[in-house]
């Protein structure tokens, strides 16, 4: 109804008034009156607009073809420039956003695209801000939301990740073996200094085995102790045998002498 001289401007809008085709003024929200059939008003929304950027094929710096989709958030901050400086600001931002995404991603390697997404988003946003500033538009945020990789590249990355996990597993196992060997060496030194510790360890092993109760195990610990005690007894008794042996030999020799005589 602006041609009748009455218009309602909503709180999130601004009204740009043209009189006989010339820019007249900008109207704030509320009920606004104009000269009928002379003034014309165009309303500009100041709310943030969500613009999806369709997926497009991009060749990265290391010659990998990927599909990249993004989303941009912008809002009009200068109602006059949005109308006078450009015909269709939303279509223009959509086109320049697609071109900027392709250029920025194309200058980056695949690893950077996958790992440094935040830096790419900031670079795209800065470029769009410089371009759209003269259109009275502020780009608030740009996000890469979908990156499509070729099937062959996905399989290669899966193999690389699997090999990396296997390498970490082997390194951790080797470190565990090294620590275990050091602890075993320390335990061997302690047992060598305190022989009773070995018997205590044997009893602990028997206690752990007895928990399962699903097998019969012969543990010759007492037999070994008996053999050790027997050897010690023989060692103690062996020195007394040579002392008795010369007496027998002397008697035999004397008997021999008497018999000869």
UniProtKB/TrEMBL annotation:
Stretches with biased composition (Polar residues): 240-252
Pfam families: Band_7
Chain intervals for the UniProt region annotation (Disordered): 239-261
Domain of life: Bacteria
SUPFAM superfamilies to which the protein is assigned, alphabetical: Band 7/SPFH domain
Domain Band: 4-161
Family: Belongs to the band 7/mec-2 family.
Protein name: Slipin family protein
